[in-house]
Design goal:
- This protein has 403 residues and is an alpha/beta fold.
- 37% of the residues lie in helices and 12% in strands.
- It is built from 17 helices and 10 strands.
- The protein has helices spanning 6-16, 46-49, 65-77, 89-92, 97-103, 127-133, 156-177, 187-194, 196-206, 260-269, 284-287, 291-302, 307-314, 327-332, 334-339, 379-387, 391-399; strands spanning 21-25, 55-59, 80-83, 108-113, 182-186, 238-242, 253-257, 321-323, 342-347, 351-356.
- The longest helix has 22 residues, at 156-177.
- The relative contact order is 0.14.
- The structure holds coenzyme A (COA).
Length: 403
């Protein structure tokens, strides 16, 4: 019972782990993402196909009489029910948790909502709302500039992944107790969990003045954790610097971490062996007010090399760094294809497309990625073989608009 991104992320991972996931969609309409952000007319969008692989797809309206019976039967038969509709939507269909528990006491019932109990519990929530209300936007962006959302879907996909952890724990608990349970994840909570280090910094601010980078990059702080540009969250000075070709290539940059252990090596490589004997540079405290200058000097060196050359030079010297890789570069990266993290899938109506495979690798249970189902592709099969309907009952359910 999932739509859009958060719920489908969770069930897709379960499907990759081998679960028989049956995606339930509204007859005639389906998940709205089938038609959103289309790149080809009339076929399921990449938004949908990249979030619903390895699932069977049925159409079912639990608000009809026949649909209620079929849905009840599915609750009896299934191990886990996942939903991410607006607060109360499944209750309004006639299936509150108490009813689900009565139908199947072993059921694990998992939900994503925007907020937990509190003033906003009834709100509908999308990705960027969660990023803004979970502490990500207030701590992301240039120093002294506006809050920014990030491209990582920490609210949607992040919450889906958290939900998977809860579902698997509940299944293990059920193995021992014989009872299912309710699993809930709020998107605000997930974003806050992923922004844990910023709540750490909030408390550190209260016990200031703090010297460690990046708490006081400009010496002026209010009473809340500020945006810190590209400073690293771990206390080691780090920044994004230009590489050769930056004038025309928007991704010709690399992140360099000037951590204590690697600083002397880094200084020598960029031609600043003089810093090692200079009291203005040879301790972390002395460097703190000079970080902008230090990274400008690092950048003079990185601008003479391609980002992969910088990586190839610094990595063997144990200077941590990471090139800014574009989506184009990632899509074409052979190593990611080899590990199954980027996968090409064939689809009967849209043809070949790329998707991100299972990022969680199990040694005995490798995941294969199979295409997403067409709307209602497995309705008859599931009604006949799992629910146990006769042809006449299937026909009648169709006439009622139940499937
Ligand atoms: C994502 C979200 C904002 C979308 O809102 P929306 O498009 O208005 O959709 P809703 O969730 O309100 O669901 C719409 C209706 O479809 C109905 N519906 C869903 N599946 C159905 C089915 N198989 N048959 C019949 N009706 C169905 C629901 O019952 C609901 O009807 P109701 O409002 O009369 O009770 C909302 O679902 C939400 O806040 N979800 C929880 C948080 C979340 O997961 N957000 C991130 C999504 S990536």
């Amino acid at each position: 019972m999932t739509h859009v991104q958060s719920g489908p992320t969770a069930t897709q991972i379960l499907a990759w782990f081998g679960a028989d996931v049956i995606k339930v969609e509204r007859p005639g309409e389906g998940d709205p993402t089938r038609g959103q952000l289309r790149d080809k007319p009339g076929v399921d969008s990449l938004y949908f196909t990249m979030l619903n692989s390895n699932k069977r797809g049925i159409t079912l309206n639990p608000k009809t009489e026949a649909g209620k019976k079929i849905f009840t039967r599915l609750i009896e038969l299934c191990d886990v029910m996942v939903e991410n509709y607006a607060p109360g939507a499944i209750d309004r269909m006639g299936f509150p948790w108490e009813t689900i528990q009565k139908i199947n006491p072993r059921m694990v019932y998992a939900s994503v909502k925007g907020f937990g109990a509190g003033p906003f519990e009834d709100c509908k929530v999308y990705e960027n709302v969660a990023q803004c209300t979970g502490g990500s936007a207030s701590t992301t962006g240039e120093i002294d500039s506006v809050p920014l959302v990030t491209g990582s879907q920490i609210g949607d996909s992040g919450t889906g992944i958290h939900l998977v952890a809860g579902i698997l724990a509940a299944l293990l608990h059920r193995e021992k107790s014989g009872r299912g349970q309710r699993v809930t994840c709020a998107m605000q909570d997930t974003v806050l969990n992923l922004c844990r280090v910023k709540l750490r910094d909030q408390q550190r601010l209260a016990h200031g003045p703090l010297k460690e980078y990046p708490q006081y990059p400009n010496g002026k702080f209010g009473d809340a954790v500020p945006r810190a540009g590209n400073a690293s969250g771990g206390g080691h000075p780090g920044w994004i610097v230009k590489c050769k070709g930056w004038e025309t290539d928007p991704d010709a940059y690399i992140y360099v971490i000037a951590q204590v252990q690697a600083f002397s090596t880094l200084a020598k490589v960029i031609g600043h062996a003089d810093w090692l004997d200079d009291p203005n540079y040879n301790t972390p405290d002395a460097r703190l007010p000079r970080l902008a200058h230090i990274f400008a000097e690092i950048e003079k060196w990185t601008m003479t090399l391609g980002k992969m050359e910088v990586m190839a030079t610094l990595n063997p010297l144990n200077v941590p760094c990471g090139p800014i890789l574009s989506m184009k570069e990632l899509a074409e990266e052979p190593a990611l294809r080899k590990t199954g993290t980027i996968v090409e899938v064939d689809h009967p109506t849209r043809g070949k497309y790329l998707t991100v495979g299972n990022p969680i690798k199990l040694s005995d249970s490798p995941s294969d990625v199979r295409r997403s189902p067409l709307l209602g592709e497995h309705t008859e099969e599931v009604m006949r073989t799992l629910v146990g309907l006769t042809d006449a009952e299937i026909q009648a359910a169709r006439q009622q608009g139940a499937i």
